[in-house]
Amino acid sequence: MDPQAASLPGPEAHARWRARVLGLLFVSGLLVVYLVDPATTDWYPVCPSRVFLKFYCPGCGTLRATHRLLHGDLVGALAMNSLMVVALPFLLYGSWTSISGRPGPAWMTSSRAGWGILAVLLAYTLLRNLPWEPFARLAPH
Q1: Does 57 map to a domain?
Q2: Nearest in space to 62 (alpha carbons), one of 47, 75, 72, 48
Q3: Is residue 53 part of a domain?
Q4: Per-residue pLDDT tens over the stretch 25-73
Q5: What's the gap between Cα 11 and its chain centre?
Q6: I need a surface site. Which of 62, 89, 95, 96 has the fewest CB within 10 A?
Q7: At what angle do helices 82-100 and 62-70 cross, to 10 degrees?
Q8: According to the model, what pLDDT value does residue 116 have?
Q9: Percent of the chain's residues with pLDDT above 70
Q10: Distance between CA atoms of 57 and 126, rounded to whole angstroms?
């Protein structure tokens, strides 16, 4: 056996390194969103669907919702993007299982789940762009 090959890190070490780097990037991004309010600065990019197509996409308001969540304002976060706030536990769990290399539950990785998520995103997009109450409350405000 080659002594140099024996000292090379295995796949577990690479997975741990990847998890640490991604975790550091994630925390750094959250720190920026915590410190710089997206509602009061032009520093963040503007949503292309809002600018060019004049409608709210499912992600519109996500940065503002994240900023408010980080400051403990759950009601304000729900006003910005209620779907993101409701989906956040699932997104975090899915990210954790992906980064850690653990398999996710079958219901989260099935094709039916993918189609269900797509249907929810399309319905949310449609409903948050309707001008009538109670749907108008789904738009970021």
Answers
A1: yes
A2: 47
A3: yes
A4: 989 999 999 999 999 988 888 889 989 999 999 999 999 999 999 999 9
A5: 27
A6: 89
A7: 80
A8: 92
A9: 92
A10: 9
